[in-house]
Amino acid sequence: MIPLYHDFSEETVLVFGGGSxxxxxxxxxxxxxxxxxxxxxxxxxxxxxxxSEQAAVDRIRAAPEPExxxxxxxxxxxxxxxxxxDHTELNRAVGEAADERGLLINRTDRSGSRDVxxxxxxxxxRDGPVSVAVSTGGKSPALSRYLRQQIETEIQDAGAMAxxxxxxxxxxxxxxxxxxxxxxxxxxxxxxxxxxxxxxxGTPNAEKExxxxxxxxxxxxxxxx
Length: 225
Ligand SMILES: C[C@@]1(CC(=O)O)c2cc3[nH]c(cc4nc(cc5[nH]c(cc(n2)[C@H]1CCC(=O)O)[C@@](C)(CC(=O)O)[C@@H]5CCC(=O)O)C(CC(=O)O)=C4CCC(=O)O)c(CCC(=O)O)c3CC(=O)O
Ligand SMILES: NC(=O)C1=CN([C@@H]2O[C@H](COP(=O)(O)OP(=O)(O)OC[C@H]3O[C@@H](n4cnc5c(N)ncnc54)[C@H](O)[C@@H]3O)[C@@H](O)[C@H]2O)C=CC1
Fold this sequence. Notes:
single chain; 225 residues; NAD; NAD(P)-bd_dom_sf; Double Stranded RNA Binding Domain; porphyrin biosynthesis; Sirohaem_synthase_N; alpha/beta
């Protein structure tokens, strides 16, 4: 399996099953998508959603039979469907109906090899625009979760570093740096312990420090030519 990132803004994600797993997936996709959850019962976790999550998640109380699943997909035209019920036949019908319509499908009750369009939801860590996704190929979701917790501390302030180097990249694109010098300059900043330190301590001079590191790298290169 090969990880890709998918933009769900302006899209609908349709979840079948309002148990603990349905709640977790609904919350995950509510970050970007409009989420519709169809289920006869809803777990208490739905009550713990914050305001923006509540606003993005519609709950519909219904218990469709497997033959009726296609109608729900046609009604909401989702980009992705999540099968998260405890009803295997229904989850299978959701998978088939999504496949017939060429929609992405997440079978939460399955691991192992998958058909085209059948996707796995990884454990995800975020810091601003930076995200790290972990999957064990379905072998051990608990390990994905554990590794996600470890990575959380590793990527502290990576979001601020992404913003900072994003700006510097645009600036030096306008300058007379060669492509090779540009790469070396940005690399020197993301590897710089002094820039990371400035970001960790929240001092306002991270940008100045980054510019200093870049200029030193540029001078070094100039000197060696
Ligand atoms: C294939 C996959 C399909 C998918 O859902 O996309 C899948 C399938 C299954 N999970 C099961 C169980 C558990 N899942 C979790 C947790 C998570 N599961 C997630 C993803 C995935 N789970 C996909 C593969 C990811 C990968 O490749 O690693 C995470 C990462 C993302 C998320 O769901 O948001 C989220 C952690 C999020 C976080 O914390 O960051 C825990 C841990 C816990 O709850 O503490 C347990 C109990 C412990 C255990 O079993 O390991 C079962 C058995 C059910 C049963 O026994 O009935 C199946 C079905 C089967 O294996 O057949
Ligand atoms: N991918 C993952 O991370 C995990 C997946 N699982 C799998 O996910 C399934 C669900 O797990 P939980 O949420 O813990 O179970 P749960 O029992 O808490 O929730 C199941 C939900 O499905 C609903 N449901 C039943 N029939 C339905 C129908 N016809 N249409 C719509 N909704 C219906 C129930 O009302 C309930 O809200 C399990 O069967 C298991 O195979 C379990 C744990 C983790």
